[in-house]
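The freezer alarm interrupted the setup, so I double-checked each line after restarting. Inputs confirmed:
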Amino acid sequence: MRNLIKAHERVKDFDWEHSYAEKPDRYPTKYKIPRKTKDPFRHLIRDYVSMEQEKDDRQYGAMEDALARSNSAGKAQPRWMEILKIALPTVNFGEYAAMKSCGQLVDTVDNAELRQGYMAQMLDEVRHTNQEIYLNRYFAKHAADPEGFHIGLKARGINMFGIAGRAALEAFFVGDPIEGALNLQVVAETAYTNPIFVTLTEVAAANGDNVTPSVFLSIQSDEARHMANGYSTLAAVVSNEDNLKYLQDDFDRAFWRQHSFLDPFLGTVYDYFQKDRGNSYREKWTEWIAEDWVGSYISKMEPYGLAVPECFAVAEEHMKWKHHTTAMLAAASWPFHFWRWDPLTQSDFEWFENKYPGWYKLYGGFWENFAQITKASDGINPMAAFEALPPLCQVCQMPCIMPRLDCSEVRFREHVGRTLPFCGAMCEKIFFDEPIRYEQTRNFWQQNDGTSLDEYIVNSGLLRSDGHTLIAQPSLDTDRMWTIDDVRAWGMEITDPMVAISAQLAVTNGSGGAPASNGSSNGSSNGAVNGTSA
Amino acid sequence: MTAAFPGAVGCAGKPTRDFTYVASRRRRLSEYEAVTCHTQPDVLTFDQVGWMLRDANGRPPWVTESTALHHPNWFAFRDPASHWQRTYVRMQAEQERGIARSVEDAAAHGVLDEFDPVWVREILGRHYRAWSYAEYGLFRAFAVAQRETLSDTLGNVYCFEAFDRMRHAQAIVLHLLELEDHVEGFADDGAKAVWLEDPRYQPTRQLVEELVASNDWGELAVVTNLVFDPILTEVAVSQLVRRFGPFHGDPVTAHLVGTTERDRRRNLGWTQEMVRMVTDESVPEREKNSEIIRDWITSWTPRVREAARAMADVYDVPPLQVARFDDVLAAAQGTQEQLVEGLPLSVEVRV
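Predicted 3D structure, all chains:
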């Protein structure tokens, strides 16, 4: 029996003071990290690879054996399976970005204990990246409707919500490595992996999909170690008082960056794609984020100088409606995407009203109407119901309609001769604190401005294998599916709404310049899509 | 088969049941390609909207200046070993189990007690343990390099090599801990001082520190896998620790070294493939790439040879002279020269 304590001590004594060549400051950090801290990673590589191999064998073995033979993927609720077409590739970038974040941390954090943890996490993230794409491919092979799964990572790149996902997740590894760790380990992994990898598996299983839980729960078994990395990193940061002057701002920003995408996205996945219904996303959010993460973790950091972000209260209030608003826009813009919607039914309405009192009054009309315009033979353009499609926030890339259309916190600000949209005060502040980080970002509308919708669909590969039928559909109806000809008949052109909004604001202000803030309350100043509906 | 299930679509052509966005190297998409390719966004193909975030200096997530090498499509790289996490971890778990089992068997049969005491104290306890720091340094260098590589397929081989290096470093430590349990009075506690102060190891330490400080991921792989390992690791580890061991009653350590040599072969293989890729006739900058690689090899090789020569005295330490240092170094240099000659460079490499 080898002496484990000695072994751990020695493998954490590999660092030395370099004297021949000075390492460049590749990823500068303003934080000072002590050389010695608590050890978050209590595994030797020998034990780690053995443990991971066993977990891999169990998970991949189940997928190829019992789950394949029972055709779990083929028999799952189609409503649920559809949203995995975007959910899997989007979450996947988080894993890949995390791998890069760990490389930065190994370089920057001069602390052998923490480095060991980052090293194992780095390989874990390759594991998760591979697992999720393996699952995506598995569904391409076994799902009842594979179209959409077969273009996962390509479709992520061109999809407006895939792009918004990248905006949040790039924060794991672009910038100060410690700020990256706050985004990744302290917020995304400690707060959000439970809603993603634990509670979503309950929804999946309840809806007949036993494959996703096999993968997600195996991933989550690694996340506990990553949370420990986050805790140790945070403990190291707060141990030096000089760090506290930066920490709160960076932490607030990290929470908001992750919340602004993950909550509307996960809430839509969770609440709008359950068929056999259980808890609501808000219930799970309250349990995991408000009570567990804030209540049992972050609030206990207060004696050390870290407070719950002020914007948390805003987020908590937004959680009542934010994802419903997102889901409404996502459904209305269904031809842009690569999954099918299953229109809500009366029993869904009752569930929503029960879980979110007041929901029907605010959203029921939209969904009642949506269910009426799904027939391709009617050819109705769902976007025609909106005066406009909204601008996308310069920071989070989410539509500027939050938390609700009727009380949107959208604001427009001028920056270097351009009028830029922000979804709310926090994204606006984040931008103006460090404009250099966001000012070059182009959004989905800008990228596709001037393209006709049918051209966008064809060029993006969003047609089924007959080259005619859309992958995206507003319903699961297969009698007469929507084709590219139906969309072409709308004569729609994608336009960047900011062109018209900027012009309108200039007229309003009479000077050609944009107002300082709160230029519009609902983002409906002009159309993102011009055309006529059939 | 699935047409009978709810949600199936039977009226829009025969559905494609595999990824269509990966350019497979072979007729059928491999598992390795399927789970690896395009996990890194590419603003030249699917992610043309561009980067969403920059650092405080305006730098985007990835920059082409991270290596002096040029290629129009780094995503075309394929690992010749086709490793993804599952196959990589399975291989390393098997290697680690093999090491643990061979040490366990050796301990059970009293083999560890038969090791020559000078061998244990000087070569394993000081020399080989000092080498673990070199491996750790290379772990750090590759961990950073994987952050910067310009495609997912490259990022993964760099990440795996980083992990290899940490595995080697830890395996040495664990092996010596076993010896502590069985060889009375043995401890490796002087090795860090050897690494930091012994003149015989300072040129190696300098090389490792320079590799950790280097900012070009292409250079790191070329220098480590085509120069450092074939000459220095070959002389310091393979020809000494592996080859001399059995003559000093130690058939066990050779097994450990063997697993590191397996990793070395794999890392050499993908580095050769990377060189082939950037010098392929389809690459507009192939001439420039050849010159850059030549310059890396010609600037580092003399210093790596020098670092190997600095260890010449270590070959005098084992009681039995299994091989002469000069012969070993000459052979390693010869093999490395052949490796370089075998690279498809359009320029001659003269060291």
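Quick read of the result. DSSP finds 21 helices and four strands in chain A.
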